[in-house]
Amino acid sequence: SELRIGIIGVGAMGADHAERIVRRTSGARLVAVSDPDAARAEELASRLSARVVADPLALIGARDVDAVILASPGFAHAEQLFACLEHGKPVLCEKPLTMDAASSLQVVEAEHKLGRQLIQVGFMRRFDPEYTALKQLLDSGELGRPLLLHNVHRNKANGPGFRSEMIVRDSMVHEVDVARWLLGSEISRITVHAPKPTSAVPDGVLDPQFAVFEMANGAMADVEVFVNFQVGYEVRCEAVAERGSATIGLGAGVLTRAAGHWGGAMPEDFRIRFDRAYDIEVQRWVEAVGRDEIDGPSAWDGYAAAAVCEAGLASLSTGQPVTVDLADRQAVLG
Ligand code: ISE
């Protein structure tokens, strides 16, 4: 039988997921959507033959909704996640899990108390074919022990409402997860620097940012996040290990030579660059939920990322390294 899905928040990401469920995911059906923008919800629902449920908590409780995708803004997640846990509904929650470490830890603890994993966090890069190939290469040991990651994360543009904090919580959070995942270690200390900002942002916004992560296992990672790069979407990662390096995200799909230029295309945004990753993520999530499982990034991963981002924000305001205050995993999850 098909998994009946409700989506909360149908902005860019939620609408993209809605299309994905309807057109490219097997074993799943879109039944309901919810969005504060009623016209936006109506338009999407009528186009995809779903219904609108104005109140997001009512959507979560609806009897014909088996599982939920949360693509609402981060500040709305905590309440909606607790409702999903209360109703026993599996949920794929777009990052960030919540806005801070304390509330994320409460989510982890509430789920743990249920004794049943229901939450997956939308760290889609773990499903991107290039990232998974890099992960396999590092895990194979062929290159020896990983020492460093160099990351680049650029967006074409983000609205003026995308403040310095969001650059950490909504953008850099991806590299936080990538570093934890690829290097198999928690981040114990973070430093976030910011050069004189681009003139493309309003006063007070620090864009780009440059961060250094110190991993508990002694490895390190650096990341440039630049969300108003103007040109297009670019995400790259180079891993340096004892006997070699490996780079992904060069975007060397099709190179053309024409009209006095050579080169390839540059994606406009994450929906294009990570389209395969999202398709694989959602298909696997649907299949795992059908087996009563969650097999992607967990609430703990969302909490750990929130703890790192909270320390990152403290570092951003002082320029000093900040130690990450992470609960003991054993103590929380047993
Ligand atoms: C957005 O929310 C995402 O998650 C994208 O992956 C990221 O590149 C972008 O900076 C965020 O705004």
How is this structure best described in words?
With 334 residues, this protein is of the alpha/beta class. It folds into 2 domains: 3-124 and 277-299, Rossmann fold (3-Layer(aba) Sandwich); 129-269 and 304-333, 2-Layer Sandwich (Dihydrodipicolinate Reductase, domain 2). It is 39% helix and 23% strand. The chain has 11 helices and 15 strands. The strands form 3 sheets. A 7-stranded mixed beta sheet has the order 12-11-7-10-9-8-15, with helices on one face. Strands 3-2-1-4-5-6 form a 6-stranded parallel beta sheet, sandwiched between helices. The longest helix has 20 residues, at 164-183. It starts with a strand and ends with a helix. The protein binds (2R,3S,4s,5R,6S)-2,3,4,5,6-pentahydroxycyclohexanone. Residues 155, 158, 170-171, 174, 227, 270 line the site of (2R,3S,4s,5R,6S)-2,3,4,5,6-pentahydroxycyclohexanone. It holds the Pfam family GFO_IDH_MocA_C3. Residues 131-246 form the GFO/IDH/MocA-like oxidoreductase domain. Involved in the oxidation of myo-inositol (MI) to 2-keto-myo-inositol (2KMI or 2-inosose). It comes from Kribbella albertanoniae. This is Inositol 2-dehydrogenase.
Heteromolecules bound: (2R,3S,4s,5R,6S)-2,3,4,5,6-pentahydroxycyclohexanone
Oligomer designation: single chain
- Low-pLDDT parts are none
Biggest beta sheet summary:
7 strands, mixed
Give me the CATH architecture of the largest domain, please.
Answer: 2-Layer Sandwich
Shape: globular
Tally of separate domains = 2
Task: Tell me what portion of residues adopts beta-strand conformation.
Answer: 15-25%
Number of strands: 15
CATH superfamily of the largest domain: Dihydrodipicolinate Reductase, domain 2
Our measurement of the CA-to-CA distance between the termini, rounded to an integer number of angstroms, reads: 34 Å
CATH domain class of the largest domain: Alpha Beta
Q: Specify the helix fraction band.
A: 25-40%
Q: Calculate Rg over CA atoms.
A: 20 Å
DSSP helical segment count: 11
Structural class: alpha/beta
CATH topology of the largest domain: Dihydrodipicolinate Reductase, domain 2
User: What average pLDDT do the residues reach?
Assistant: 97
H/E series: EHEHEHEHEHEHEHEEEEEEEHHHEH
